Amino acid sequence: MTKMTGYENVLSPRGLPLNLRRLSGELPKAALEIGFGNGEYTVKWAAANPDTLLMGVEVSFASLTRCARRIAEMGLSNLKVICVDARFMMKELFADEAFDQVMMNFPCPWPKTRHAKRRVTARVFTDGLAAVLKTGGLFELVTDEGWYAEEAFETLSRHEAFASAAVEVGVSRSVTTKYERKWLAMGKDITRLTAVKAKKFTVDRETWGFDWSEGDMPLHMKTGKPAPDGFAFLRGESGARGEARWVFKECYAASENGKKFLVETVSTDDGFEQRYYLQVSERGGDSLVKPDSATRIFLTPSVRFAVEDLARRLADAASRS
Ligand SMILES: C[S@@+](CC[C@H](N)C(=O)[O-])C[C@H]1O[C@@H](n2cnc3c(N)ncnc32)[C@H](O)[C@@H]1O
């Protein structure tokens, strides 16, 4: 039997929304944990709930790696993890009414006012949560910061999709997280917020609507011109449209005959950043621009705009030369 590495359970961002039924092998329930950290709590939760597919979303790749190791040690198949920023991607990854339960253990509280957009209480987060949670499903947030739980309580109580929210102070749990033990050792109280979704709710998805099947990558653009002689003029060029921003960083030759180039690109959608390569290849006097096939990215609006912008700039440069 092949030894498990844990990486079998790490998902790459393709085929959105994720098909939870296929991923779980038809388990009857699904739950989501956001910001699982080292995954200690996560693997214990998954092992104790074998009838549930647990999806873990974490923005830190180092944390994801630690969790993957734990998954392998415990031989879990009902826990899948993915490295993304939940604020922007939760709603893109999952369909409406996907989860029976959504959990957050000790989210970063972001106490500074200028960071308030990063809190769970930001509308972009609560709307995504309201969409992906099942009607009747439970949201649970555990924190050492009483004010944070109160703020989330106020926000969810006002949200049209949530009927009842409650806050308990001084909670004691049988399974604890790394941060929980740290705060308990410092004598802090643990506060739990719970909220039940009472009404259906939906949100717009930016990345849906593509045909993601292999070999049918929708983001191809031809320039109608040969590749320009050099690509240095692209370095530092940037663009913006709505909430989308992109910048072309470096250009690398990817073939000896000068017919293929990679353009390192960074783009953001409302602050959600992705770094990737766009490939330019010339054949028969025409150039094709597309995301490099080794690149694993979400096809957000900024990526589409970057492809269009690059194709336009290349066509202009080729016309000038
Ligand atoms: C204070 S730690 C708590 C970790 C773990 N839940 C625990 O209790 O030990 C907060 C975690 O949330 C993750 N995180 C912060 N913002 C996030 C986001 N927008 N999406 C996904 N994960 C996020 C961080 O990388 C970090 O691992």
Explain the overall architecture.
The chain has about 325 residues and is of the alpha/beta class. The protein has two domains: about 5-195, Vaccinia Virus protein VP39 (Rossmann fold), CATH 3.40.50; about 220-320, no CATH class. It has helices spanning about 20-25, 40-50, 60-75, 85-95, 125-130, 145-160, 180-185, 300-320, and strands at about 30-35, 50-60, 80-85, 100-105, 135-145, 160-170, 190-195, 220, 240, 245-255, 260-270, 270-285, 285-290. Strand 2 (about 50-60), helix 3 (about 60-75) and strand 3 (about 80-85) form a beta-alpha-beta unit. Helix 2 runs parallel beside helix 3 (about 60-75) and helix 4 runs parallel beside helix 5. It is elongated, with a radius of gyration of 22 Å. The N and C termini lie far apart (about 60 Å). Mean pLDDT is about 90; it is low at about 210-215. S-adenosylmethionine binds next to strand 2, helix 4 and helix 7. The site of S-adenosylmethionine has 20 residues, from strand 2, helix 4 and helix 7.
Keywords:
alpha/beta; binds S-adenosylmethionine; seven-stranded mixed β-sheet; 321 residues; single chain; elongated; Rossmann fold; six-stranded antiparallel β-sheet; 8 helices
